[in-house]
Amino acid sequence: MHKENWKFYLALIGFGLAVVAIPVAILYLMDGMLSNVSNGTDDGWLGFWGGYLGAIITILGVFIQIRLERKADNERIKAERVADLQKKSLESLLLIMNGINDSYQILNEYYKNIQQSEEKYSIDGNNLSKMYNDASIEGNAKDFALDVANINYKKNAEEISESSAKYDSIRSTITEYKINQLAFFPFSVSQKDFANVTKLSSVLDNLIDNLQKDFWVSTVYITIVGYYETYSTDYSKSNVIANLDSRMLGPQNIVQTFDSLKFNENMLYFTKMLESLKEISSVYVSKISI
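Above: the chain sequence. Below: its structure as tokens.
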């Protein structure tokens, strides 16, 4: 039982004992030490007991009223505190999601650029070696690398660098959010991915894992641009093909690595989660505005 309830019941018991003890003490005195004193009239005793019981009822009423008001104030303060924590949790998550959205907007440009260049020059990561023996398509690898790097590389390199640093910041912010604010989020049963702590925590884990993988787009971009810069020095088309077909970044060549990314799928998942969060935010704002 709550400590506050124990205090209330103890006070109530003490008050009840006092109510009983006082009349008993009066009767004892009247029969004992004060037996030689006049017992008074019936009207007098009736007035005394009426006043006594009236005072008891008044005191008890005031006591209960004070307790009810105090309980109501505590509940109001608690509700205001919970509402404030929910609001801050929702605002923090919206900021996190907006940060992720900014990163996806940047990465999507590079993803589309590389994908379109692949299609334009018929670049197949599983069959790059055929370009060595076919003069008609040998230059495609070089043109592909040039096309990928055909926009302001310096600007994009800086943009990617800033975006990568932002990813580290987002990951750190999500970790901190899960520790300090996740439990206060205004969960919504109408949005199954935001229904409780466990599900929302899983969504955040998925988002950060997906984003980490999707940042490979920036690695692919910088790597391919580097291959073209090498060509601008040695003018060897075969070296461009060899570089594209190399396994410097893992078991796959750079083109296969790019093709294996689930970028569009991950971005679609993020967009769905962002829309759900915005809907929750809209409902929450409408509710607290009533």
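Residues 84-289 form one domain.
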